[in-house]
Amino acid sequence: MRHIRRTGWLRLSLAGLLGIMAVGACSQSRGGSGGGSDKAAGAAGTNRQQTVVTALQTIRPVLTTSGKVVPRQVVNLSPKTSGRLVALYVDQGARVRKGDLVAKMDDQEVRAQVAQSRANLTQAQARLALMRAGNRPEEIAQSRAQLDGATARMQQSTMLQQANEQLLSKGYISGDEALATRTIQRSNTALLQEAQTRYDLIRRGNRPEDIAQAQAQVDGAAADLQIVQLRLNETEIRAPFDGMITQKYASVGAFVTPTTSASGSSSATSTSIVALVGALEVLAKVPEVDIIQLRADQFAEIISDAFPGTPFKGHVRLIAPEAVIEQNVTAFEVRISLDDGLATLRSGMSVDARFAGTPIPNALVVPSVSITTKDKQLGVWVLNQTERKPEFKPVTVGPTTKDKTQVLSGLEAGERVYISQPQERTAAGFNPMRMLGIGGGGGRRP
Known about the structure:
Elements: H1 2-31, H2 35-50, E1 51-53, E2 55-59, E3 62-71, E4 74-77, E5 83-88, E6 95-96, E7 101-105, H3 108-133, H4 137-170, H5 175-204, H6 208-233, E8 236-238, E9 243-248, E10 255-256, E11 262-263, E12 274-277, E13 280-287, E14 299-304, E15 312-319, E16 324-326, E17 329-338, E18 350-356, E19 360-367, E20 371-374, E21 377-384, E22 389-394, E23 396-401, E24 404-409, E25 416-418, H7 432-435
Antiparallel strand pairs: 1-25, 2-19, 3-13, 3-18, 4-11, 4-12, 5-7, 5-10, 6-9, 7-8, 9-12, 13-17, 14-15, 14-18, 15-17, 16-17, 19-24, 20-21, 21-22, 23-24
């Protein structure tokens, strides 16, 4: 019974299929010689349904490229001199402003040096003031009195010598007595000159050279104080720019070895206190063919998979002047400043950046889905109007906007391009027996 049912089903199927073929044959015989035209018309209609006509349009390309959220600045903060960390005012994740106090190093020794330098400066300034002020009035009056006394003694000895010279000429005194008065006269003359010189010096004050030397000592003491004051300020570790503390490398009480105070090198972390990152931005790489569409301050839309449906705003901050080549692809690095999302996005996130390019008039465009490859060549399938069959044409493409792509060369306006992969079908390949799973060769005859 099972064999009979299967055989009956096959006979019914064959009968139905032969009936369909007979109806088709009758239809073809009614068409006469026009059947070939109907077949060609059907093929042409199918081709038109799979193709679109290229045309010139004004397009505004939208450039989309991948990027990554990165900090604009990254530094490791450390002291300039070795010392013990006595205070840490921030923790990991804290936001700081430029100039905020981040940490404090031990400053007892430096404070003592500041006090000593300040005392040295005060002493030098007092000496300079004394030199500039000159002698006191009391000292000048005393020197004047000494000069007056020396003058009086000189006058008295002069009168005595004149009298003795007359007495000596008349023989009233001896030569020794006259010689004694001459000696007194010469001594009083020397004393008068000395008193006069001393009075002149006291009245004029200190020499300019002495004052200049005192001024130099003041300047040196002030410089020493400034140096130690800078060392004292350096014990306070402050943020060099606005940012966030991302890492903490030292705790209060730790002895920190100096390194570059604002180093971005990872090797500095063992001798640093904290790591500070600046404002976030997007670093994207744009192919060289599209870089002409970008300019500084151009608006950009940032899309993150972590926040679907929430685009962020930004603008182009910098376009690298030199290209980079990776895997034989030439591109330019573009840095995008974020206008919002700074508190939402995180460093290292992958994002997409979208830019609206400059309008391109009279651009030959094709649907983006029509662009394919054949033998490692980029191109499109077009309908050969003469032979009425698909033909592959290599093309050079330009920017893309939504679902359309500009064709720079290889195609002309008015040509029909396939929007899906074309397939040639011929009647010779049709085998109705194979559709039923029988015949087609290779099977066992009944």
